[in-house]
Amino acid sequence: MSYDIEVYGKLRLAPSEVQTGTGPVTASEIAGEGLVQAFTHDSGEYCFIVDGPHDVGGEDMDSVPTGLPDNVRFRYAVVVEGSAQPHIGHALRFADDLAGVVGGVVHDPQVAVEETSDPRYVSRRTGPSREKFLHVEWFRRFDEESPSFAQMYLESAKEHLPAALPTVFGFSEPLRGKLAEEGAEGVDRIYREDGDRSRLVLRGRKPLISGFVSGWSDQSIAEQQRVRLVFDASALSKPRFVSAFESFFVDLAQRSSSFFSFAEVTQSRFSPTMALPQRGEWPGLPQSPPWLSWFSTEYADLVRPHLTAGAHRELSGGMLYRSNMPATSVSASWTEPGAWVPSEFVPVQADPDNHRKSTARASEMPVALLSSDYFVKVR
Fold first, then answer.
1. Is 180 inside a domain boundary?
2. Which of 29, 80, 162, 174 is a good FRET partner for 51, with 20 to 30 A between their CA atoms?
3. 53: cis peptide before it, omega within 30°?
4. How many other C-beta atoms lie within 10 A of the C-beta of residue 112?
């Protein structure tokens, strides 16, 4: 579980400006062309990440809280991985300071509107319930088809789930590419030309919220290539969407020769439960059973004996596993004997400050996924 805070403002800040006035926390690393920064406390403890600024406008306006000032143009996300109160406190103070700098307001989805009269805060709702988000990711190894990953995604979405197509795309904010103008060919071209070491950022119209296609060069530190999409989970209440989504999920896994894919519902827009690798290696499977999982043939042979609950479908190139949980249930809350794999298939996540970080990879996985790079391998 993460604690998510959003800051909406009228100013776009450079990374060095986002770090201004951070008090006892400082930016420790910057990734993704400066859009994502990790902040640590003076004591050395990890505190939170800041993602942004991202443009707000057009199709994005249906995904922002009501009651925002008319002149806000940019969104910053402040995310605490876990529920450590000191870190949440630092993040809230940082968000307050950032809102002052960008001339904006703070949106804390965890706080109901009646609980605060501070005009700097806005809320999407008046009750304690939180939104749910559907996270889906496909993982594949690098090969000669890696530059075609964006094309695979677009073709699969167009055929099975047009709602998964982006409306805008690009490598940095503001996202200037428009699918309606450039078509799938334009997305494919820009990814092949400039996506070797940069992720192609995607944004759509609900139910699709956002996503990315990671870089295709095997010279980067990452040892896998992936597509991540985030949807408004309320779409799962529609049987037609669920059926189309499952077809899309399987088809893209097959097209891309993914070794693992998952779809899960969480209460965080920014953080799926999948472990983050220390460096670039494959950390292992999620700790909790996702709603849907795809395993390559090699992975399926290892996990099949343990998945005694739920339903299996043996398909070309792998196996689809559907847990017994309702599609709209939060994955991390589901427990059932035989619903998921034993502990040797999941990484150790023993960092008290960042519960998503892998501190040691899983001991059981297909041999092909074991890192051969001494500088990447996590023992």
1. yes
2. 162
3. yes
4. 14
Q: Is 236 found in the same domain as 333?
A: yes
The confidence score (pLDDT) of residue 372 equals 56
Please give the Cα distance from 159 to 255 (Å, whole number).
12
Judge whether 342 lies within some domain. yes
Answer for the pair 111, 105: CB distance below 8 angstroms, yes or no.
no
173 Cβ neighbours under 8 A, 6+ residues apart:
12, 35, 52, 53, 54, 55, 201
Q: Are residues 328 and 197 in the same domain?
A: yes
Question: In terms of residue numbers, what domain contains 239?
Answer: 133-369
Give the distance, in angstroms, between the CA of residue 232 and the centroid of all CA atoms in the same chain: 13
In this prediction the pTM is 0.72
Q: Would residue 82 be called left, alpha or beta, if left means φ above 0 and alpha means ψ between -120 and 50 degrees?
A: left
CATH of the domain at 98: 3.30.310
Assign 345 to helix, strand or coil.
helix
In single-letter form, the type of residue at position 205 comes to: R
- 210: tokens are 């956002």
d(Cα 269, Cα 19) in Å, to the nearest integer?
A: 23
Q: How far is CA 183 from the centre of its chain?
A: 25
**In sequence order, which residues have a C-beta less than 8 Å from that of residue 80 and are 6 or more positions away?**
2, 3, 4, 5, 47, 48, 87, 88, 91
The model's pLDDT over 237-286, given as tens digits with 9 standing for 90+, comes to 999 999 999 999 999 999 999 999 999 998 888 778 888 877 778 999 99
Q: Are 255 and 151 in contact (CB under 8 A)?
A: no
